[in-house]
Amino acid sequence: MNPIQSLVKDLADKHGRKRESLLPIMQGVVAQEKYLSELAMIEIAREIDISASEVYGTATFYSFLETEKMGKYVIRVCKTITCAMKGKNQVMLTIQNMLKIKLGETTPDRKFTLLETNCLGWCHKAPAMLINDDVYTELTPEKVREVLSMYMKENHVN
Question: What pTM, to 2 d.p., does this model score?
Fold first, then answer.
């Protein structure tokens, strides 16, 4: 049994093998592997006896269930109207200029991936971004440079 098969089996043992177990199993794989590989989605489908296309459809519906390998740090910038009105575009440009990547790309060293996401729930402190599980709010280009510099120097505890 390969590591993915073992992980999926353990998660199915924990969460069950019914249709409603799909999301917790997928979240468990992402927590461990950082994304849902094609092999993982096939194994999940086999383990809970649903089609692989149903697993893939679910994975691509939810924005935090990535189906491609991400960088060590996944930067998710909120794309709501509130964040846009409070300077999200300048924040995005600052990130792109610092990391030399565009939206949806990963740096060549696989350290950072830049994504947009729907509401992070921080509209009252917009604009906001999430780097892995850490929230950063009331962003300005200067604050973004400071935060990213910390991650670039590897002084950040992850």
Answer: 0.81
